[in-house]
Design brief:
This protein is mainly α and 97 residues long. It contains 5 helices and 2 strands, in the order αββαααα. The protein has a two-stranded antiparallel sheet with strand order 1-2.
Length: 97
Amino acid sequence: MTVAAKQIAPPPPRKEPFVIGPDGTPLTLADLPPANTKRWVIRRKGEVVAAVRGGLLTLEEACDRYTLTVEEFLCWQKAIDQFGLPGLRATRVQQYR
């Protein structure tokens, strides 16, 4: 067997844009929470923040898509910056203030 035959080919380039999500996996527009999301768990909030930070969505697009206020999104972002994903827990807000 030749040396060239032993080399592993690199994966094909991704066709759609992606960012690295809060859990370290690639995140595309198709992977984002549905636009009609009503129950915001930590993972979903983190995915939306990662999408905006990575340029997958603009802040305005995210707010329009998920019916969020700019202030609400910025609170999520600040909570991640200060406390990581656990800072997004709605039941623990008082502990992190």
